Amino acid sequence: MSGGxxxxxxxxxxxxxxxxxxxxxxxxxxxxxxxxxAKREKAVAEVSDWAELREAGKQIKDHTLRHLDRYxxxxxxxxxxxxxxxxxxxxxxxxxxxxxxxxxxxxxSEVVKVKSMATQExxxxxxxxxxxxxxxxxxxxxxxxxxGKDRPSHxxxxxxxxxxxxxxxxxxxxxxxxxxxxxxGLTDTPAELADAARxxxxxxxxxxxxxxxxxxxxxxxxxTMVVVxxxxxxxxxxxxxxxxxxxxxxxxIVPTWQDLEVFLQTLxxxxxxxxxxxxxxxxxxxxxxxSADGPRTFHLVLLDNGRTDTLADEVGRQALRCIRCSACLNxxxxxxxxxxxxYGSVYPGPIGAILSPQLRGTxxxxxxxxxxxxxxxxxxxxxxxxxxDIPEVLVHLRERVVQxxxxxxxxxKVVLKPAKGHAAERxxxxxxxxxxxxPGVLRTGQRAASRTRxxxxxxxxxxxxxxxxxxxxxxxxxxxxxxxxxxxQGGKDASK
Amino acid sequence: xxxRDLILARVRRAIADVPRDDxxxxxxxxxxxxxxxxxxxxxxxxxxxxxxxxxYRALVHRCxxxxxxxTIARLLDGRGAASVVxxxxxxxxxxxxxxxxxxxxRAADTPAELDRVDSxVTACAVxxxxxGTIVLDGGPDQGRRRITLVPDHHICVVRVPGQVVSSVPQGxxxxxxxxxxxxxxxxxxxxxxxxxxxxxxxxxxxxxVVLVSGE
Lengths: 496, 215
Known about the structure:
The structure holds two protein chains of two kinds. By secondary structure, chain A is α/β, with parallel strands linked by helices. Chain A is 49% helix and 12% strand. Chain A folds into two domains: 4-307, NagB/RpiA/CoA transferase-like (Rossmann fold); 438-488, no CATH class. Chain A has helices at 12-19, 23-45, 50-66, 68-81, 92-106, 117-122, 124-130, 140-147, 164-178, 190-207, 233-239, 260-271, 307-311, 327-331, 333-338, 349-359, 365-369, 379-383, 390-403, 423-436, 439-451, 465-469, 481-488, and strands at 85-89, 110-113, 134-137, 210-213, 217-219, 224-229, 243-249, 253-254, 279-284, 297-303, 405-409, 412-416. The radius of gyration of chain A is 26 Å and the shape is elongated. Chain A starts with 11 loop residues before the first helix and ends in an 8-residue tail after the last helix. Chain B starts with a helix and ends with a strand. β9 (279-284) of chain A pairs antiparallel with β9 (181-184) of chain B.
């Protein structure tokens, strides 16, 4: 991951500490996440076979990942047969180079973009800008983020941290810099704001010669790309330009056309709580010159950028099942309070906490702190439409941060050193292991603890202070259990 | 080594734990979910389509084949449309009762020219009742994808009950993935402002669906 805007992010606790004191942010997030939570529950309850759809989605994705090499080759063949060109990018820089080259080859200096997590992840807009190419975001929330010179804070709704009043101000202030100004007297009603975006972007759609997108799914069997959206900006970018470039993570494959029947039911209900999203576009390569429907040239850039490293981890690879619905963000108590920016990645929330440290490694302060950005309550797992056991992966990644061990980075096996910040935790665990393997020491320690229990502090001193600030220390009993057991012969002699 | 070979080699190393005789695709998962939800009569399925389309703010009209031309003329008139895009293979009888200027669906026209047209009339490939979805596959009576996108008013004719299926799985079975498909469930909308849905962004802000029965 190029990191770009995320370079040098503070660790999650620090960023979150600042975010929770921002009352506007907390209000905006609370309102938005609670609105969608209730709706999602209703949309899911409408289908009686949700559990079966979820299980099938999980199994289809798992099977695909277990045979990913085969399906990638099959996809390449079918896309090529349908008139598309397939490119492979091992990392963000390579993907950016390929897209820049392809855009330059058209002779154009601007592109219109469909909202895409993959291009956010690789920092494509910044890379294009450095080469003199303007990339216009056309999704409403992405537009708000781009105009506001902001960072995305949610997978589905990158401007979720903004309320309608703030959006109005950004539109009124910034639209004229980028093209058609906001209408005079723009108010903060959502319908008017949506209309302002329609007017602002239309001229860009109508003259665009190059479109850049991601894809929600790629069908190996047929070479079909699928983009699921609401506003119609996706359709504009996918059908009006002459050249279409799609940058897609290699994990987005499903084997067959029929497999879509699962995800086209679970994705809309999980993300926007709709039976079906307003627009879904599917295309297979390019159409022939007689029908001439849509772009004449189609490029698919298959992106690794840490995905194969993630795949190499037998516990962590389940994160690659993710279909980017964002249900886990909307339900997460930590996300609701800390907001998306604190996660220091385009992937915030519970899925981000397991995806970013795997895609980028746990080398930086922010990535090493992300597996701890959770209370392990498990709500994310319950709502996940592909049943990613996020708490399981979080605990697995915590182990890796504390203990170090073998991981795969850029395709090579490396051994991570234990993280520095967890020395006290490791020392405590070592001491505990020693005590538990020496019964005499344990007995002496327990008796000493019982006798001094009146003098125990309520919070721990030193490095344990932060830990005990938010937790109650358990009370030490008057007599250790093992002494009680011996004295009463296992409770039989209760009179003693 | 090319990036293609590099990535494929990384993938193969990453999944080295998967046994060679791993369960093949056909047996790898249980499709334990339903082919359709509930047991409905044909008429009830058509009603459900109408309800779900309306729930997502499509305007739904019902008429017989004999009334179709008059219905379409009335809708174009009600909208005040001066021009309408017509796919090459649209049944000419459908527009027999209107005087509105016809604009053919031509590859040579620019998107800006299309933007000046008021309305578009198309048929569809299939409609899905459970989700209130109409699917266009670019057939001769539906035209290129952009003609149902750029004009602000789309009238889509669904032949009922023949073109209506209950569920998403049944809908996918009916269409050809080699064709460019557009699945439409209500007019353009967004949930991007405070995660609340509002209708009307870039696609047609008015979607009218005519359910026509009998031939």
